[in-house]
């Protein structure tokens, strides 16, 4: 067989994901905080990109090439920044709006609409304002570690003991618990474990009382010793905390050797202690959630869906600077660099615009599907999956999944993650419309919250019967799973709690 080189032409089909398409997919699933960080990096890398100045603008101006898109019964105006859903409350449900679960009336205007136009636009503290307010804005609460180091500086320890104490303080978490083994600390510092135990006793004597404990029992024991209330009965109670969690008072009385009155006093004293002594000190500030979409109620039962302009980066391609630098480019390398920067800048601006339009499309369809929840409450939350939304707006399920990840919607009923509106379906006993799992969980919680005495406590089987009478076909194990997920005790434990409360 002779070997030789030859040319062949073959035709085939293949899917190639270009770098630009990968960038668009990546932008779609980023949260607003991650998107801001990504845009900042692009602004540093690409000299042709610049931020659009928003100062003096009352509202965001749409780009010149913005198109108006119509789909179903909603319309996108102002370059895809606003959508209006033609869904009235009367068409959603024949019942009246639940008064206990309705939006705050103080937040509505004369037409029943919620004004979200000023949301998330708090201004900075002015230097010409109140000095106390300025100091309060700049002040930082002392952390637990700083508080412990302040006490260590006046503890009168030797240099070796101070070094051990510093290592122990660094191993204490925000709750006040020691998260390191003493033998590991001794091995790392090359000292006697007994010395580490002795220094730990000194640290446990610092304020707040109970700091440096290795578990809940030791934390409570330190607080009881500080109050001079640690006796054999209390020690037996701390040794049997699982019995206390199960409200097994008969077994606790036997273990502690006390009567009912003494046990009640001991339990009441434990309730006055804190299992997290370090929680009163400062920590990293919690970042509030910035919603990506606002939903407000308009006249005639319409729901207005609008993108949050504060979370949308507004970028422009500096054409004047591009013309100047391209004219000054001499070598081929410089020309290629300028050309690549222009192409990347144009694609990024286009991708950001497409991302905003896609988020608006998906959120508008979610609002259309869950308009009953917005009007009447969580009991009217409908079953919804990604495929339903994807088919309605003509997109792929993976695209909808990326859009709903780490995105939030601000509604008159609160701020919810988009994933909240996607719930599984529970069949109806009468063969009618299925029930949302979230609405069923809400009904279970309502039934349990209504229990006022031992006789009113519902078992899981009784809850199944009540739900089936209401048209919900659900199994007992599903009720138990939902109850445990909501951290609700069993019927036996709830009866004990109500009995002790009496």
Structural class: alpha+beta
- Report the major sheet: 7 strands, mixed
Envelope shape: extended
Count of helical stretches = 22
- If strands are numbered along the chain, what order do they take across the biggest sheet? 2-3-4-6-5-8-9
Strand content: 5-15%
Low-confidence stretches: 56-81, 86-131, 133-138
Distance between the termini: 98 Å
DSSP summary, beta strand count = 11
Describe the structure in your own words.
The chain has 502 residues and is of the alpha+beta class. It is built from 22 helices and eleven strands. Strands 2-3-4-6-5-8-9 form a seven-stranded mixed sheet, with helices on one face. A two-stranded antiparallel sheet has the order 1-7. Strands 10-11 form a two-stranded antiparallel ribbon. Mean pLDDT is 78; it is low at 56-81, 86-131 and 133-138. Among the domains are: 70-118 and 291-375, no CATH class; 144-280, no CATH class; 424-501, Arc Repressor Mutant, subunit A (Orthogonal Bundle), CATH 1.10.10.
């Amino acid at each position: 067989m002779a070997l030789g080189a030859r040319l062949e032409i073959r035709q085939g089909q293949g899917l190639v994901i270009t770098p630009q398409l990968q960038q668009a997919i990546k932008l779609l699933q980023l949260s607003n905080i991650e998107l801001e960080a990504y845009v900042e990096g692009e602004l540093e890398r690409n000299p042709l990109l610049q931020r659009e100045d928003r100062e003096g603008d009352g509202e965001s101006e749409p780009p010149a090439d913005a198109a108006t898109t119509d789909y179903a019964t909603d319309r996108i105006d102002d370059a895809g920044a606003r959508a209006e859903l033609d869904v009235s409350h009367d068409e959603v449900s024949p019942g009246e709006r639940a008064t206990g679960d309705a939006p705050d009336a103080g937040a509505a205007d004369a037409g029943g609409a919620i004004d979200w136009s000023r949301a998330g636009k708090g201004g900075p503290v002015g230097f010409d304002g109140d000095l106390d307010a300025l100091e309060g804005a700049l002040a930082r609460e002392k952390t637990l570690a700083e508080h412990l180091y302040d006490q260590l500086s006046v503890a009168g320890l030797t240099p070796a003991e101070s070094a051990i104490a510093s290592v122990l303080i660094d191993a204490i978490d925000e709750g006040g618990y020691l998260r390191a083994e003493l033998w590991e600390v001794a091995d790392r510092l090359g000292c006697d474990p007994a010395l580490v135990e002795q220094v730990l006793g000194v640290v446990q004597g610092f304020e707040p009382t109970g700091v440096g404990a290795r578990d809940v029992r030791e934390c409570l024991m330190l607080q009881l010793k500080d109050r001079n209330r640690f006796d054999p009965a209390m020690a037996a109670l701390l040794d049997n905390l699982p019995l206390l969690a199960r409200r097994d008072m008969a077994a606790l009385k036997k273990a502690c050797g006390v009567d009912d009155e003494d046990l009640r006093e001991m339990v009441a004293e434990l309730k006055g202690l804190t299992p997290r002594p370090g929680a009163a000190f400062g920590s990293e500030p919690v970042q509030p959630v910035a919603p990506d979409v606002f939903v407000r109620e308009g006249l005639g039962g319409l729901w207005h869906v609008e993108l949050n302009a504060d979370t949308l980066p507004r970028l422009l391609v500096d054409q004047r600077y591009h013309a100047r630098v391209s004219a000054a480019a001499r070598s081929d390398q410089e020309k290629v660099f300028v050309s690549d920067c222009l192409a990347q800048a144009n694609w990024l601006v286009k991708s950001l615009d497409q991302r905003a339009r896609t988020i608006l499309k998906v959120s508008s369809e979610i609002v259309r599907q869950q308009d009953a929840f917005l009007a009447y409450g969580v009991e009217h939350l409908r079953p919804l999956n990604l495929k339903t939304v994807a088919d309605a707006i003509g997109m792929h399920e993976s695209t909808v999944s990326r859009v709903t990840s780490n995105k939030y919607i601000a509604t008159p009923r609160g701020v919810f993650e988009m994933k909240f509106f996607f719930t599984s379906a529970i069949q109806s006993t009468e063969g009618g419309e299925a029930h949302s799992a979230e609405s069923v969980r809400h009904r279970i919680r309502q039934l349990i919250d209504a229990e006022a005495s031992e006789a009113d406590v519902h078992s899981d089987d009784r809850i199944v019967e009540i739900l089936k009478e209401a048209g919900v076909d659900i199994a007992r194990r599903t009720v138990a799973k939902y109850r445990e997920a909501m951290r609700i005790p069993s019927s036996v434990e709830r009866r004990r709690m109500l009995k002790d409360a009496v």
